[in-house]
Amino acid sequence: MNPFLLIDSEDTPILRLDLTQAVGNGARELFLKAAQEFEKGIDDTITFDPGYQLQEGECFEIKDFLISDALKAVCKQPLSADRLDKDQLGHLPIKSIVGYDFSDRKERIFFQNFDSRRVLIPGKGFAVFATADSSTFKELEAPVVLLDAHLAAIWDKGTLKFKSFHNAKKIFDLTSYFTEATDEQIGEFVAHNFIVCEDKEKLIKNSTAWSRKKIALILHGKVLDSMTAKSVKEAAKLVEYEVPMSGNKIALPTDKRELKALLQFLDEDLYLGPISQRRLLSSGKRELSAA
């Protein structure tokens, strides 16, 4: 198996990670074993409901979940995908590492979450590895990609299964499965101890269907609960976004455009284009104007 990197880019959405035959066999075993572990202990599948908290032994599922034709095509014909060049690793907005099993009439795609810690780049940090002399270590000279032994989701002939909404939303756009936040939920959002809102009633009145869905997503993901002034500023710096702050709290803008940008940031929709360094929307590689 040659796994794929799922890239948040319309230009190169999928890249093939070419492996030697022996390593490829090992990767296949890794993904198949991870799939067994994922499915072990599932006693019941629950139709995805953003308001439902999974219990032990339960798993969310979405039937008739559309996966891109391009991804299905390369899973059937892996060599048709573009190859990854090692020099690209430090710059790509990677969403997921993907394995697959299309043997014996199966159609299964396995998704691992990805973050920057999964790639070791020489010169970024200081990584070492053992040489032939087991007590001597040498500095890393080439990029390393770490495959995980855990899956975030499995797609099986049209049905998507996942156990963590937080992990799944990093890979898939699940916005359409959310209902709009109610007035009461918007009140809960603005009442959070990390939020300052000048006029709650005006916010409720001006909230569109889009912004209500975003607020519902943010509330469900408990994004604000783990934030600090320091962490939010550091995250904003990575995407060159200036968070409106009042002291150590986020100040909700009254301007609709500014509010939309803030909600996109809080729902982790923003990233920097690896080549252009433009601030882009992950849902479609559309450039955003400066805040």
Distance between the termini: 43 Å
In the predicted model, the low-confidence regions spanning at least 5 consecutive residues are 271-281, 283-291
What is the CA-based Rg, rounded?
21 Å
The average pLDDT value, as a whole number, equals 83
The largest sheet has its strands arranged as 2-1-5-6-11-12-4-3
Structural class: alpha+beta
Q: How would you sum up the global shape? A: globular
Beta-strand segment tally: 18
The H-and-E topology, N to C, reads as EEHEEHEEEEEEEEHHEHHHEEHEEE
Beta strand %:
15-25%
Largest sheet data: 8 strands, mixed
Number of folding domains? 2
Helix segment tally = 8
| Helix coverage percent | 25-40%
Describe what you observe in this structure:
This protein has 291 residues and is α+β, with helices and mostly antiparallel strands. The chain has two domains: 4-172, no CATH class; 178-287, no CATH class. Helices cover 27% and strands 22% of the residues. It contains eight helices and 18 strands. The strands form five sheets. Strands 2-1-5-6-11-12-4-3 form an eight-stranded mixed β-sheet. The longest helix is centred in the N-terminal third of the chain and has 19 residues, at 21-39. The N and C termini lie far apart (43 Å).
Strand-helix topology:
Elements: E1 4-7, E2 14-16, H1 21-39, E3 44-47, E4 58-62, H2 69-76, E5 94-101, E6 108-113, E7 119-120, E8 128-130, E9 137-139, E10 144-145, E11 153-156, E12 159-162, H3 165-168, H4 183-190, E13 195-196, H5 200-206, H6 209-220, H7 229-238, E14 245-246, E15 249-251, H8 256-266, E16 270-272, E17 279-281, E18 286-287
Parallel strand pairs: 3-4, 13-15
Antiparallel strand pairs: 1-2, 1-5, 4-12, 5-6, 6-11, 7-10, 8-9, 11-12, 14-15, 16-17, 17-18
